[in-house]
Amino acid sequence: MSIIYSKITSVINKISDEIHRSFLFTTIFSILRFIELQWINSYFKELYPNEKFLNFLNNSILKKNLFNPLIVLLLFSFFLILSIKSPSKSLVITLIVGFIAFFIGSTILPKYFLNNNIRIIEFNKKDIYSIGFCLILVSIIFFGICIASVGGIPLLKPSIRYLLKPIFTMPVFLIIPGTCLVASAYLKDFQMKNITRSQARFRFIFLLAIDTALLLLLGYRTPLVAAFLIIIIIGFYGNIISLWEVIISGLIGIGAIIGIGYFRSLSEMTITSSTNPFYTLQSRADFTLHVLNLLDFVGGNAGLTHGHLLTSSIPGSDLGPRMLIGKIIAWRTEVTVTPTLIGQMVVDFGKIGVAVEMCILGFILGIGFKIMQKTKNYFYIAIYSLILTYSILGIETGILDIQVLFYFATAIFIYLINIKKSQQ
């Protein structure tokens, strides 16, 4: 496995080096270095509040546990509360089972691993940066292809958003892990004191600006929130972003989600200007809970599809997982339906599946959180931020996309090797 990794990273490093040496990118990075220098020495930067701003928020327990895996349960509960409708009695039991299983997996089971002689795999920063840089480059190329294929910008013409083809949009979403890896490489530079905190912050903001430009112009909210969350989590645990900035950013992010949804609904004429802006968020939660009630009913205790829903994520399947959900609950295969975090679990394997899969998900996040806190390693901060981000987003959408499943599979693989290595 290490030989394969070495050969792949060797090729990627060569590609990255060649691109960096090209005239175009030499010019781009020269301009960025100039802007970064102006940023660092800017008088206006001195007007920005320092780390001690809103100092009353700097609670040590909150700083240590703000992005604890249990935040998934907290946000899931909040999402359910948003809904006007109430869950059925059967669904309440399913949720209790899932929540208890997740708590056991994330909080109790990790206590039995990596307690004394923790030994982790160390990844080369250059490899991580090169992989991330190439992923971002691929996403930018496919962004151009997406715009050309529909003949316009979906944000400005919402109707053409539905003409976007998954075969072109999926590579654009590689900007999310790409951003994660490049940001972690900058974090490593900061930890090694190769760059200052101001430089690291500028580079994080620039990465987020690229993500925002690409994903917002395509009219996608969820991947944009993913990029936003990843930058915040890496910056927070890397001491690049302060706690008060995380809280303010979270409020801005919630406002952005509501705002984008509201104005997109106005442009699509699904609501009127007199409608409460919170209605779009409430209606989504309401619809998703209604879907979950139906899925819980058909899933029962042992499930209906027995793994077929999860395997439908594999490219080449007749129907994607969210289209399959649409067929199960309404016999409509032309629409995609978000099933929440436990929707796939209950349809595939029922309440038993919810217990097992939520426990596994909790364990992955729990082990990742423990490794990150013990080592403060830049790469493990990045990988935890990636899987926690998609767990949070999965509260509504479910963890069903093939690339997201790949991220989790990679995390599981790396964590298991670390556990085995530490036990030797």
Automatic annotation (TrEMBL):
* One Pfam assignment: O_anti_polymase
- Highest taxon of source: Archaea
* Name this protein carries in UniProt: Oligosaccharide repeat unit polymerase
| Transmembrane stretches, start-end | 65-84, 90-109, 130-155, 167-188, 200-218, 224-241, 246-263, 352-371, 378-396, 402-419
Keywords, alphabetical: Membrane, Transmembrane, Transmembrane helix
